[in-house]
Specification:
The protein has 139 residues and is mostly beta strands. The chain is built from 1 helix and 8 strands; from the N terminus they run αββββββββ.
Length: 139
Amino acid sequence: MTQPATNRHRSVVVRRSGNRAARMYGRAVVLCGLIALAVQAATFSSVELDPGRNELIATMTYDGSNPNHQFSVHWGTCRKLGTEGNHQIMAELLDNQWDDTAQQTFTTTVHVSLAGVNCHPALVTLRTAPKYEVNVQIP
């Protein structure tokens, strides 16, 4: 013979001691730490102009779980600087695995072609997220 199950509900009151502001601050610190681990930015080790190949050669350092990150280039708008004929243009290098878990540090070389850039002479600002920048003057 089976007996019906009985449900007994009890109210549980959890009391916390301590300062509420201190607990909120502690949570914020932990959250910032988790975000910092999740968001790893690529940085520039070096950037050089190769006039013979008409390209910029950027050595990138990034954290991740593998060495297979690919970088794409997104060009901004060419802007005239002053009256001396110089220009400025922004190029953003984006990591296709920007959210990869940081386990090791890797280095790769990225070749940025200047063939399609009709903005000469110019100060090229290369940027990676979040706002690591380097400037290179091109003739």
